[in-house]
Write a structure and sequence with these properties.
Alpha-Beta Plaits; 3 domains; Ubiquitin-like (UB roll); 15 strands; Ni_insertion; nickel; 9 helices; alpha+beta; TIGR00299 family protein
Length: about 350
Amino acid sequence: MQVGALPELVLTRVLACLHRMAEARAIVREIAASKVQFSSRSVAELVAILTGLFELQITELYASWLPLVMGAEEKDGQIDSAFTLEILRGSGARWQPTNETVTLVTPVGAALLATCARFDTPDFSIERIGYGVGLRHNATPLAMRLYLSPADEVKRPATMRLYLDPAVEMEKSASVEGADTDWVAVIESHLDTMTGELLGGLMERLFTLGALDVTYTPIQMKKNRPATLLTVICPLSMGDELALILLRETTTLGVRIQPIRRLKAQREQVQIQTVLGPMLVKIKRLGTQLISASPEYEECQRIATARQIPLAEVYEVARDAIKNAIIEKKDDRDTAEKEK
């Protein structure tokens, strides 16, 4: 398998799925995640499905309620249902009890849903349906079922079903009109044994390496420990690199990586004249539509320091200049367009 030949988005999602599966298996089997191994079949299934989604240009997936089995299926010395539940824990998956006693959601399927799907119920109509059929462990091949009598015990094959609704794609396209869109990697981890000084240094290092954003959120962990949720946003190509930095340079034992689609307004800096001299301000647009204009902190701080005046005074001057030079001119242009 030529992993390096995969599209970047596919490779990132495959690695994210394997990471989820490794973390879950490590918890269930009480071993280190680094010792978890995967079968070539599981990797091939992930690559095939994610490549198919990529080729079909499907960027939004929605998952329905999942069947919650009352029993468990022993396989290769581990409990499949426990493994699957651990993968989907915290993903937002919704469950519905069933009388089945065997696992109906495989670990590979669980990892795909936890990584790529949203557990919402959108309004949709079905245009096309796709099926993928494989074999469960010790299952009877699907072709043989045609020749077996009803008395013969046949295990249900492993299946995947995909509904395609073109209306959802049209709504998505309409909603991004005028906005830029791209994909980024989001890395998360819980940190409960690092000091404020170390966290401050870590943030500076991540920004230096190329992170787009780094945030810390206070959380409460098990055993009533106060901790910090670290969230890093970075280009897809840097996801694994920054994740390894976190594993090497923080106290965390694992990180979560997932690809996220972003919508972005266009931003630019323009120079305007003010009573304090020329000043750079930030413009926010959606296509040709001006959304807002605001002072740049660094520019205001520079002028406040040079003139030895309060920063708040510089902001006030900048806002007045923006109103006169940008906002009112925009309103005049809009009025002229309507009159035409």
